[in-house]
Amino acid sequence: MPEIRVTPLGAGQDVGRSCILVSIGGKNVMLDCGMHMGFNDDRRFPDFSYITRNGRLTDFLDCVIISHFHLDHCGALPYFSEMVGYDGPIYMTHPTQAICPILLEDYRKIAVDKKGEANFFTSQMIKDCMKKVVAVHLHQTVQVDDELEIKAYYAGHVLGAAMFQIKVGSESVVYTGDYNMTPDRHLGAAWIDKCRPNLLITESTYATTIRDSKRCRERDFLKKVHEAVERGGKVLIPVFALGRAQELCILLETFWERMNLKAPIYFSTGLTEKANHYYKLFITWTNQKIRKTFVQRNMFEFKHIKAFDRAFADNPGPMVVFATPGMLHAGQSLQIFRKWAGNEKNMVIMPGYCVQGTVGHKILSGQRKLEMEGRQVLEVKMQVEYMSFSAHADAKGIMQLVGQAEPESVLLVHGEAKKMEFLKQKIEQEFRVSCYMPANGETVTLPTSPSIPVGISLGLLKREMAQGLLPDAKKPRLLHGTLIMKDSNFRLVSSEQALKELGLAEHQLRFTCRVHLHDPRKEQETAVRVYSHLKSVLKEHCVQHLPDGSVTVESILIQAAAHSEDPGTKVLLVSWTYQDEELGSHLTSLLKKGLPQAAS
Amino acid sequence: MDPECSQLLPALCSVLADPRQPVADDTCLEKLLDWFKTITEAGSSLLLLQENPCLLGLLCHVLKPQDLSPRVLAFSLRLAGMLAAQEDCFQYLQGELLPRLFGEAGPLGGAAWTAPSVRSGWIQGLRSLARHPSALCFLADCGAVDTIFSLQGDSSLFVASAAGQLLVHILGLSLQGAAEGHPGLQTGDWPVCAQKIVSHIEESLRSAATPQITQALNVLTTTFGHCHNPWTQVLWVRLSPLVACLLEKDPVPAAHSLVDLLLSVARSSVLSSSSCGLWETLAQTLSHLSPTQAGPLALGILKLQECPQALRAQAFAVLLQPLTCVLEATAQAPGLLDSLDGTGGASVTVDTLLPSKAACVGLLCRTLAHLELLQPLPQRPSPWPQAPLLGATVTILRLCSGLATPTSDAGGHLCAFLVGCVRVQRAALDFLGTLSQGTGPRELVTRVFAVLLEYLTSPDSSPTVLKKAFQATFRWLQSSPETPGCSDLDPHAQLFLRELLPVLPKRLCSPCWEVRDSGLEFLTQMIGHWGGQAGFRRALLASEVPELTEQLLRDPESYVRASAVAAMGQLSSQGLRVTPASPEHPGGRQKSLLAELLRILSTDSEGFPRRAVMHVFTQWLRDGHADVAGDTERFVARVLQVASQDLDWEVRAQGLELALVFLEQTLGRPSSHCPYAVTPPVAAPPSPLAQALRPLCRVQLFEFAFRALFDCDRPVAQKSCDLLLFLRAQTASYSGPQGSGSVPEVASVEAALQRWQAGDQGQPLGYLEPEVVVAVLRSMDLEGLRGVLAESSDRVEKSPQSLLQDMLATVGALGEDEADCY
């Protein structure tokens, strides 16, 4: 029995590091290869030993697919390909291929910077890994090999994020990666066609949340920044190099323009250029509005946002600074934070999630006295705000996507167990499909119906066509033929051809039935009465009375005989062929009603 | 445990015990266990419990029926196991707590058991606990072993695997004392626990269900892999007939695990010497398994240090079979491998060995990979069939590229399977590269170069295939014999080079950045190796390659720009950049490469090209490159000035590397053992030290180094600290004039340094007199700074105290923001 097997090595009932193994039609695919930022030892990577024990990785895995450039989806990739030893193809979209190495490089630099880590992938490894990538376009069907094909769909979330359909024969799985079902200022909404996969693997970060209006969140954000700047304070927004930062930049840029604000906005040097470059290059991946206005004005060429220089942090007066990294765990953002933390006029806005062990996590949990090196204490007097701008589908969005794709079953990943449980029930109730939520290491096995291709003979098709009806996908019709299996192939052919090909002789199969009639006359007379009755009733058919006394209606033969025990009863033997089955049944029921009296 | 943590622990334990309080971050409990592990490994667990009664309180609390988070329950099980690893602490906990945690009455029977994390925690707890004989009695009494048996088939891979490993551990532990001194002790006399496990394994091996057989084989594989005590031999003697019975089944169940087990046994020092019928079983297995399954076994056998020759021959024949098939199908030197084929001419046809495309591709890839692993090993079969292997690999590559014209049906099938198959191309090119380590007949080497050239030229070659073709080409060129006397490439390779160099420009102009980059990497390797050889130089200079490489300095892809910088650096170092003046600009001077590289260093938006420039500059300075030697001080001053402004800390760190080279050249080489030990300069100039320091002052090396010392990126500061320590050591003997006028200058420098340390980048120092530098260096606590820098920059945030604070602070702070992500 064919089956689809799914085993999350990461993202099974958690949001740590996505890595899901799918086995479909004898092919093995790894969906995402993420890293957990909360660990600084080997636990940050998925435990690949569960695949390496199946022999060589490159032989076992047919391909790796990366949904988008966030590190919890691609951070382990150089480790997997250059250190663990996977040497097969890696698929991702063009923007992901371009942006992935920047984020990997940033992370590597921070990891090495902080601790002088030796056992970490190098720049060369990132490059070598990226050279193994095969970039795909949206909606392009890519043949991984003769049997396995993949296709990318737009996922919103971040530039280049994609959902992937994986198909082997008639079996298919859709993996959503992270997605957003509502458009934002620079990206569109996720979309997929009614592809009816056997299984939809969907993220479920906001499985129980119906997110408040984005407008409200944006208004709140702008109000807070504006108030801080108005009172002469400095605003720090720690971000990751590329991703949601660009959404916030557009938001502030528009607001600054509208309000005619003069306070400078800075972005870590190099990153604005980089973002600009990539958004220009992949403009087709942004939303409709940005694409339309691109010719007159590139939304990413900001008028108010300038490159930041380290010395600017000491400048007097208000300012807004976007600085990396996003969790305040090293580099420029942490440096600026230390400078500004002591002033209550200032503000730090955390636009995303922070793992334990970072300054970002500390201040978000309300800690205001931070121990620094040498037992120094940094008192955080600045205002601390958390405003999640991460772009995931909420519960409504997830349900919408399930409705769009119409899968046979759903599997939830990338979320918390409790929230998943709730969504699972909702999906099962509403869509009447099975929903699974395996923990990491647990395997879900789904049996699938075997699909056997059948060839049809040209002769048979031509004969159908000759009846004058053109094929119409919306109006299925019956087609009679003989299914033959030869050389491990199934073919539908006409029965004549089947007999010929198989060297068989035709046999006639006749159905027979006995009808008892109360008639004391002789058999010949009964036969005449039957003939007369049928002749009058079945005017459209050819009814004959043969010299041997039997009656025929088309291929149906009727013979009258005497009853062995009751001389007042005659037995009518009725027989007909398969082709005249309908007429035969009709005729039998007619005779069972008896013969009309008038004829007697 | 430090007092701060002790103070925080009770509050944390009550938070963990409260089911209403969610645990903020799924990594926190893991990190907490890491911390407890460090504590228990360093000291007494009993003392830890006595000093922190809250821990015992937590462990008791989790046993109460309540809606506790599975994560906290799993944590408690693991913690309890960790504490009970010490026998005195085990006795302390054994009375009631441990049986209730790990026995039938514990989570085992409850609803929480459905969570894989709890089952995993239970196993890990027992794994930690099982360290002493008392633990074994406990395991037997509480019926844990039976539960572990059932967990071997758990729905979670992690749990199932941990259960198998735990069984191995218990088996080892129970036999540690019992059988150690009595190698002759038969399994019937083994401790009850061990007997139970062995019986279970026997039962599983007799089972008809493949998963059970797999579990048993995996347990045995780990046992023989990890434990080399004499009792393992007794175990093998008892179980080997059952293992051999598996071979009688068709198909052989759990073949992959069976291969792993047999190899594990064969590698075991205790077992292979006495054999115990092992070699016969191995030979039998080789002949029973399918070619795909037998490949790893054959490779494993050939990797063994000691093994009967007949078995090795059989294994090698199995490994070579697919390639024999390819050679025969393509009617090339039929029977070429006959001499090595231990199957005695039992020819296997393409139809049976490589029946479908998937099977053919899979088997060939595996075979090529296995042979690639085998080739460099000293114990590889001898004689090594270099020529047939080369022939087969070249044939496969030709079949893949559609170059081969098959003359038989079998060849036609192969051709249809392999044409355009990137997987096989990659595997074959990797193996071909490895084969360059050996020699081959001239005619075959010609064919190797021809097929490589074909791949490098073909428009159908994918970027990954091209990269491998470049790598294989370089390896083959490297292995070409040098012409005696002139250390140049042999005429054969030279001929190839003449054909290759016109191909390279096409690849350097490829629309794929991956291809351009691989081309440049190949070029850099080639110049590094043959840049000094006349034949190569002539061919390169006659081609468009140098010009195109220079153009790639402005490639849109930063990786390519970086590779172009490296290649240009090499070209220039080897004097290969000089091209005749172009007809448009007769006699016109080409733009200086130094200026171009400086432009990249100061303006390129990406770090890779800037880092590559720094690498080239450092190399140039080290080698005394002509562009640098003319005015070294000016060069160093300019580079340091630009590097100091760079946002990429790796560029700044490389600036320090360059500064160190300059320093060495000016003052002498540092001692390799201790960079800041007092040693007399090895190649110090004869002039007084102040004189020697003056060039360093002129290039503002000290300002660069002092700024770097307080860099926010730790590796830069570390490197600068090492450099300054070296410098101070060099100037230790200096007792030059310290005029009264210099004192205020020293104070002002020290004040500036303090401001820098506080994060204020402020004003530059300007020109410093050598005396001032020496005085400042002497007054600085560089050793202290070095100690601080040696530690992780986020060690405070990662400390246990910080972890406890974070976990406590999260209580109540979590709301809608709970478990968000990027």
Automatic annotation (TrEMBL), chain A:
Belongs to the metallo-beta-lactamase superfamily. RNA-metabolizing metallo-beta-lactamase-like family. INTS11 subfamily. InterPro entries: Beta_Casp, INTS11-like_MBL-fold, IntS11_C, MBL, Metallo-B-lactamas, RibonucZ/Hydroxyglut_hydro, RMMBL. GO terms for biological process: RNA polymerase II transcription initiation surveillance; snRNA processing. The keyword Nucleus applies. Residues 245-363 form the Beta-Casp domain. It is found in: Cytoplasm; Nucleus. Residues 16-210 form the Metallo-beta-lactamase domain. Component of the Integrator complex, composed of core subunits INTS1, INTS2, INTS3, INTS4, INTS5, INTS6, INTS7, INTS8, INTS9/RC74, INTS10, INTS11/CPSF3L, INTS12, INTS13, INTS14 and INTS15. The core complex associates with protein phosphatase 2A subunits PPP2CA and PPP2R1A, to form the Integrator-PP2A (INTAC) complex. INTS11 is part of the RNA endonuclease subcomplex, composed of INTS4, INTS9, INTS11 and inositol hexakisphosphate (InsP6). Interacts with WDR73; interaction is required for the assembly of the RNA endonuclease subcomplex in the cytoplasm. It comes from Acinonyx jubatus (Cheetah). Pfam families: Beta-Casp, IntS11_C, Lactamase_B_6, RMMBL. Keywords: Cytoplasm, Hydrolase, Metal-binding, Nucleus, Zinc. This is Integrator complex subunit 11. One of its GO terms (cellular component) is integrator complex. GO terms for molecular function: hydrolase activity; metal ion binding; RNA endonuclease activity. Its cofactor is Zn(2+). Transmembrane segments: none annotated.
Automatic annotation (TrEMBL), chain B:
The keyword Cytoplasm applies. The keyword Plastid does not apply. Keywords: Cytoplasm. Gene3D superfamilies: Leucine-rich Repeat Variant. It is found in: Cytoplasm. SUPFAM superfamilies: ARM repeat. Belongs to the BRAT1 family. This is BRCA1-associated ATM activator 1 isoform X2. The gene is BRAT1.
